[in-house]
Specification:
The protein has 109 residues and is of the alpha+beta class. The protein has one domain (6-41, 55-103). Helices cover 23% and strands 18% of the residues. The chain is built from four helices and three strands; from the N terminus they run αβββααα. The protein has helices at 6-13, 73-76, 81-84, 96-104; strands spanning 19-25, 32-38, 58-63. Strands 1-2-3 form a three-stranded antiparallel beta sheet.
Length: 109
Amino acid sequence: MQYCCPQFFNLCNEAGTRGVGLIVDASETKPAFFLQWRGVEVGEDTSSLSSALPLELATELGILFCPWCGVDLNKFYRKCVGQMSRPHLRLSRSGPCADRRDSDSSDDQ
């Protein structure tokens, strides 16, 4: 598989680990790309963690373009997005971004 740039390749390989990674979810109507930040590895025991304040151990942000080279991700990866898809690493499939993604799919036609 060819990647748009080395930075994008590196983030795809870091998906699900502590730090920053890139998640591709092709399980919905339109493929989606997410930058994801994790304070803990997937599957790591967090039962002993405590905080006086609310604490997010992971968050993600949907993206349409590569943050480094600017390529349109859906266009560049349209033929191989199925190979890249790892929806099981997503944090959530609900909320305003998921709703918007579904309604945007009609705009492409």
